[in-house]
Amino acid sequence: QVQLVESGGGLVQAGGSLRLSCAASGRTFSNYAVGWFRQAPGKERTFVAAISRNGGATTYADSLKGRFTISRDNAKNGVSLQMNSLKPEDTAVYYCAAKYSANLSYRTYDYNYWGQGTQVTVSS
């Protein structure tokens, strides 16, 4: 089992940046692909980005390419999401999730473990 804890959320003005972190504990973290998802009030949880077990492959939601960057440090059991040029529509609770597989996925149901989320609010 893997436990995930997100941090780094907060209030930022439009155009600003935030860096989210996901700290993992439990099983060997390098065996898990990791994804970031977000959920705005009243909306479904949607895919943001994912990274492979060794960090060699990444994928992003098309609308976020160029603004968001996912990375990981297996030595520190952590995954980060750098978010730049933030917009009010980026406001959401951001979740990291892990799946025991080499394949990247944008589907929530492919992920076995979830963190509690961290709130990101972008003011206009």
Overview of the molecule:
With 124 residues, this protein is an all-beta fold. It has no helices and 11 strands. The protein is 0% helix and 52% strand. A hairpin with a 5-residue loop joins strand 4 (33-39) and strand 5.
H/E element string?
EEEEEEEEEEE
Biggest sheet architecture: 7 strands, mixed
Radius of gyration: 13 Å
Strand content: over 45%
Q: Give the overall pLDDT as a whole number.
A: 96
**Which term fits the overall shape?**
globular
Question: What's the number of extended β-strand segments?
Answer: 11
* Low-confidence sequence ranges: none
Helicity, as a percent range:
under 10%
Distance between the termini: 40 Å
Alpha-beta content class? mainly beta
Count of helical segments? 0
List the main descriptive attributes of the protein structure presented here:
globular, 124 residues
Offer a quick outline of the entry.
This protein is mainly beta. The protein has strands spanning 2-7, 10-13, 18-26, 33-39, 45-51, 58-60, 68-73, 78-83, 92-99, 113-114, 118-123.
Q: How do the strands and helices of this protein lay out in sequence?
A:
Layout: E1 2-7, E2 10-13, E3 18-26, E4 33-39, E5 45-51, E6 58-60, E7 68-73, E8 78-83, E9 92-99, E10 113-114, E11 118-123
Parallel strand pairs: 2-11
Antiparallel strand pairs: 1-3, 3-8, 4-5, 4-9, 5-6, 7-8, 9-10, 9-11
